[in-house]
Design goal:
The complex is a heterodimer of chains A (about 325) and B (about 350). With about 325 residues, chain A is mostly helical. Chain A has helices at about 5-35, 45-60, 65-70, 85-105, 115-140, 155-160, 180-200, 200-210, 215-220, 225-250, 260-270, 275-295, 295-300, 305-320. Chain B is mainly alpha-helical. Chain B contains 15 helices and four strands. In chain B, the strands form two sheets. In chain B, strands 1-4 form a two-stranded antiparallel ribbon. Chain B is globular and about 65 Å long. Classes of the chains: A mainly alpha (about 325), B mainly alpha (about 350). Chains A and B meet through helix 3, helix 5, helix 11 and helix 14 of A and helix 6, helix 9, helix 12 and helix 14 of B.
């Protein structure tokens, strides 16, 4: 096998891994959109907030330390203990559920029957709120997140593929981060669990009923408000998973919330209403942008990853306005 | 009684069609215009110009532009920052390529160039609707910013990648560059705001504005009764981008002077303008003014209270600002989805009946 071919394969593999990471964020969008018709822009910030909370709890930070110090002139920073990763994750999950309840009670409840665009803007407001709130609570500095996920290049894979291109071709085996492999595994498990959950549990059925028809679901005795809390909690859980993965990869910082923007073209490609769509869309975009950067990028100045996904989605939508797997949009007067 | 239509007899159709049918409104409008043009320039100082008034005027133009597209025509756009960048870079290229050209013409032409780019990115709106379109406009945002970063021709091959506004004068008074006085900058922007707001107001109550609103309310129904969606949507994109391009040109040449594209015209600016029209009121020219004033003034106020008044560190003030802006947006959407403009409308209704309840 020629080295060029193997490089391409390596890029495709890395693209697939990146795509899985995008898909993780996109999943949260799809869940909320399906169950409540809300396009939740805050999903990325939720991931950031979850990751920050996790780090904060793990390292025993005092919440709102900066604010407290500013108001009372004290000097508190840490409680002086550390919490094991598992407990910290459970506690963070608790915070996300609490957040879901608060959002339902103070925001969504009041916005029932509003136009989708108003709800979308409300979630943008929510994203701003959470971003500021998270920074106030845990501080805006870049944190490292470590919950024991292995990272670094996979030596095993490198050695196994080293000799494929011949001795002196300069090809040293596939370079794939272990973290990305774990992320891919987690994503697969997550999707299977979510699918099983929505197919076979009572709550899952209720979720699908609400997604199909709000009013019919209400009339058979499904509580919309409970369902919303559950959906936002699940989205919070997905955000936590995405936050842990992205946070371990590139540190917990503000730019984490921008991956939400990257998840948008993934959604458009896959369709807003389809869980498999989110995965396939993520993979297409991950591979597409890596290959484009590899082949075309050097010719036009590089850093094409910033916009390639959007352009791809835009071109794609012109031919198929509802995305790959989305429900056909039927318009009536 | 003071706030009434009664007693103000209209004898011509033109009188009947005027923008401010109530006498007091009309006087208020003349008064505010007179104060803005004749009084403020003599009292303005550098702090007020650079912190409050000039940004307010420039953001107002951008907000009116986005309001035409989103509020009147119903096409949500997240590409405002990108289109402002087009205006800024067009202005820069025009100013440096044709040094003799009047700055007025430069700004207007950069608006025109932005309109062309806007139409180009508006084309998909014929196929893509709603959220899908909002996300599609992000393509414009990221692509345009990338383009201005990567193609050296746009920033005249300068080493820093920045663009700097050369000095230009109107009637021998400098309006751009570091030596321009506060009042000159202010008046220059004010002229644009005044003319553009007047144009926008009259566009939106005429035939073209009504076809925009028809498309916004239900595009298929509008198509059936004979509104051409191609012409209507693209004209909304063109005019909206024209306004936003002018805002971008002014933002660069008059307000900032030197611009690094990713910082000055990033995605945050797109959201900022969107917030302005949500808080101000979708589909209202007054709302664009109110929203811009609110979002320009509030950070200044918060900063003065928290950093100046309470002595808190600036980073906390910045975070709290996020919390407050976010909270306010949610609050406004819950309490009054139609924004400050609707509150103003309600207040006027009440005032007309006052002192009677009905």
């Amino acid at each position: 096998m020629s080295a060029d071919f193997l490089y391409t394969v390596e890029i495709i593999l890395n693209g697939l891994m990146a795509g899985v990471m995008y898909a993780l964020v996109a999943l949260g969008f799809v869940l909320i959109y399906k169950a409540s018709g809300i396009f939740n822009y805050a999903q990325g910030v939720m991931a950031l907030f979850a990751a920050m909370t996790l780090v904060g709890i793990q390292s025993g930070q005092v919440p709102f330390a900066h604010l407290i110090n500013a108001i009372f002139g004290t000097e508190v920073h840490h409680f002086g203990w550390t919490v094991p990763a598992v407990f910290a994750i459970i506690l963070t999950l608790g915070v996300m559920v609490l957040f879901a309840i608060v959002v339902e009670r103070y925001v969504l409840k009041h916005l029932v029957n509003q136009e989708p665009i108003i709800l979308f803007m409300a979630t943008i407001g929510l994203a701003y709120f959470m971003e500021g709130f998270g920074d106030l609570m845990w501080g805006a500095d870049i944190k490292t997140l470590d919950v024991g996920i292995p990272s670094g290049a996979s030596v095993w894979l490198e050695q196994a593929t080293m000799g494929w291109a011949g001795e002196d071709s300069g090809f040293y085996g596939f370079y794939i981060d272990k973290l990305d492999m774990v992320a891919a595994l987690v994503a697969i498990v997550l999707v299977i669990t979510l699918t099983l959950f929505s197919q076979y549990t009572k709550t899952g059925r209720a979720l699908r009923a609400v997604a199909d028809d709000h009013q019919a679901a209400l009339s058979v005795g499904i509580s919309l408000r409970t369902i919303w809390v559950i959906v936002w909690s699940i989205a919070g859980f997905v955000a936590l998973v995405a936050g842990v993965m992205w946070g371990s990869k590139s540190g917990v910082q503000f730019s984490l919330s921008l991956i939400a923007l990257k998840a948008l073209p993934v959604l458009m490609l896959g369709g807003f209403t389809s869980i498999p769509g989110a995965i396939v869309g993520g993979l297409i975009i991950g591979v597409g942008e890596k290959l484009f950067e590899f082949w075309i990028g050097p010719m036009i100045g590089g850093a094409t990853e910033n916009w390639f996904a959007y352009m791809l989605a835009l071109l794609f939508l012109v031919f198929r306005p509802q995305g790959l797997f989305g429900e056909k949009i039927i318009e009536r007067v | 009684m003071f706030y009434r239509e009664s007693g103000d007899f209209k004898t011509k159709y033109d009188d009947d069609n005027q923008t401010f049918p109530i006498k007091l409104d009309r006087w208020g409008y003349y008064l505010i215009t007179a104060v803005a043009f004749l009084v403020v320039p003599f009292f303005i100082n550098d702090y007020w110009a650079s912190a409050v008034l000039v940004p307010f005027l420039i953001w107002t133009i951008a907000a009116i532009g986005l309001n035409i597209l989103t509020g009147y025509c119903g096409q949500v756009s997240l590409g405002t920052g990108g289109f402002m960048a087009v205006g800024a870079y067009a202005c820069y290229k025009l100013m440096t390529s044709f040094p003799e050209m009047s700055i007025f013409l430069c700004v207007l032409l950069s608006g025109g160039i932005t309109a062309l780019v806007g139409v180009l990115f508006g084309l998909p709106s014929l196929r893509i609707k709603g959220f899908y379109l909002a996300v599609a406009t992000l393509a414009a945002q990221f692509f345009l910013v990338w383009l201005f970063n990567k193609v050296p021709w746009f920033y005249n091959y300068s080493a820093s990648g920045q663009i700097n506004a050369p000095e230009r004068a109107v009637f021998d008074v400098l309006v751009t560059g570091p030596y321009a006085t506060a009042s000159a900058k202010y008046l220059f922007c004010l002229v644009f705001v005044f003319v553009l707001a007047w144009v926008a107001r009259n566009l939106t109550r005429g035939r073209i504005g009504r076809s925009w609103m028809a498309i916004r309310d239900m595009d298929i129904a509008a198509e059936i009764i004979g509104v051409n969606p191609l012409k209507t949507k693209l004209s909304a994109f063109a005019i909206s981008s024209f306004f936003i391009g002018i805002a971008g040109a002014l933002f660069f040449s008059v307000y900032l002077g030197a611009v690094e594209v990713g910082e000055a015209f990033g995605i945050t600016q797109s959201f900022l303008v969107l917030f302005m029209i949500i808080i101000g009121g979708l589909g209202s020219i007054f709302g664009s003014f109110a929203g811009a004033a609110f979002l320009v003034l509030m950070p200044v106020l918060l900063k003065n209270v928290m950093v100046g008044g309470l002595g808190w560190p600036t980073d906390i003030a910045a975070h709290l600002e996020f919390v407050i802006v976010g909270g306010l947006i949610v609050f406004f959407l819950i309490v009054e989805p139609h924004g400050l403009a609707q509150l103003w409308r309600l207040a006027k209704e009440k005032l007309r009946l006052w002192p009677f309840p009905h």
